[in-house]
Amino acid sequence: MQDSNLLLMLNAIGTACTVLLAHSAFQLPAPATMQQKRALRYFRLALVGWALAFAIGSLQLFSANWPALRPVSILFANLTYCSSYFCILVAVATRYQYSAIGIRTWHYAALLALCSMLVIALLDNFLLRNLLIPTLCTLLLGLALRLSYLPAKATVQPRHRGDQYLRLSLLLLLLNLLLTNLLMVPLTASGIPTSTRLLMFILLNGILLTSAINSIFHYDLTEKIRHEGQTDALTGVYNRKILPQLQPQAADCVLMADLDHFKRINDTYGHDAGDYVIQQFAVLLQHAIRPADTVIRMGGEEFLILLRQTDISAAQQITERLCRQVAATALNFKGTPLQITASFGLCPVGQHDLTQAVQQADQLLYLAKQQGRNRLVRS
């Protein structure tokens, strides 16, 4: 009786601890993207599954008084146990957009059905039941760990330190799974209480997974704040705060661009019209450059374009085409037609550092303004 009370207390402690861990995951702020939200949802479900496994495992302690309770508790404990690992797999796949693995709802239903049949078929075979179910979970966790090491799709944000913590946590979960479920099966068959093993195992898993969840979504939020701090709110391009972080080899040529007679637009049509013109000018610049190039709003109506893998002659052709495109673009602000032009200053980085090249391009832009605007001046 004392052993039963002790095991019941251990399960109660385990349930409370995993509930608190799950609760902490539910306190995380909402991620920025739908993809991250779905991943967080499945991570939370994994923690909830472990808490349920603890709670359901406690029912087995009363099986001596109610024999019919034992098979039911074993069945549902194993189902929630396997479901947690499936949720981890789906969370990792969702986070990195590995849709090619084809996880769908019917796969989840098939997994539950398979686990149910395994548990029911092996209900009275302690050794096999405690070997095959963890093996299935090991395969799910191993696949999740494999996905975390594959190159992410282009639509996924660059990985950060939180993703490294996730990989480490998945590896530790896998080791914990192997040690406490596969290697210790002969020991548990010899009489080590299952509830004690379950307490250590699930509690450690919950701590590891909760730490990983908090790490990756903390770094997601940090990256989001950092990106927002480097992004211009009006146009969506980078702002000048990103310049100190750029390496000298960030560009082969730098191009300064500035709208002509912008003050006249503001004075005549208002600042809303001016904001509209700046937004459209930023769109024109982004469409005119290549994916490897970078557009930065320096302030007001002035933009910096970093051209990579481009010599001065090719950069001149790009800029002259852009100058003609801007002049030929007819804008319309609330029914009012607006005609814009822009001036450009182009400088190769060459032997300069990036800051010197930007300063020289700015001086060349000033010369373009003096020479009549709507033109390019290059060094």
UniProtKB/TrEMBL annotation:
- Top enzyme class, one word, equals transferase
Tell me where on the tree of life, at the top rank, the source sits.
Answer: Bacteria
Q: Which SUPFAM superfamilies match?
A: Nucleotide cyclase
Q: Does the keyword Transmembrane helix apply?
A: yes
Q: Please give the InterPro entries that the UniProt record associates with this protein.
A: Diguanylate_Cyclase, GGDEF_dom, Nucleotide_cyclase, Rev_trsase/Diguanyl_cyclase
Domain GGDEF: from-to ranges: 250-379
Q: Does the keyword Lipoprotein apply?
A: no
Q: What is the recorded name of this protein?
A: diguanylate cyclase
Q: State the species of origin.
A: Rheinheimera tilapiae
